[in-house]
Amino acid sequence: MPEIPFRVVFEYDYEDGGYIATTTSLASVVGQGRTEQEAARDLEAALDFTVLRHHDELKRGTLRALIRDAGFEVADFVNAVKT
After folding, report:
1. 16-74 pLDDT, tens digit each
2. What pairs with residue 10 in β-bridges?
3. Are 72 and 5 in contact (CB under 8 A)?
4. Whole-Å CA distances, 53 to 1, 9, 46, 56, 68
């Protein structure tokens, strides 16, 4: 399973089948897949996309503040998402 630097919650989607992966720290970022592993990989890709998409905010400090408020170090968060 991919290494994500915070708590991931898996829920089984009874309506569509498969799993939904969310994190309590960034609730708007979601992954889905037929298995928990696929959902975790999809969540990791969504986190990566979020970091890349918000690169300007990260440079200005807006996303940096959000990450710190969630209890993480920015460098650890960015490095974990990129690997």
Report:
1. 999 999 987 777 889 999 999 999 999 988 887 877 776 666 666 666 677 766 666 76
2. 21
3. yes
4. 24, 23, 10, 8, 18
Nearest alpha carbon to residue 77 among 4, 10, 27: 4
- 7: closest CA among 18, 19, 22? 22
Tell me the helix, strand and coil percentages in the chain, rounded to 5: 50, 15, 35
- Evaluate whether residue 3 is within a structural domain: no
Q: Can you give the residue range of the structural domain that contains 44?
A: 8-82
| Stated pTM of the model | 0.61
Domain-located, residue 66:
yes
Q: Do residues 31 and 9 lie in contact, with contact meaning Cβ atoms separated by under 8 Å?
A: no
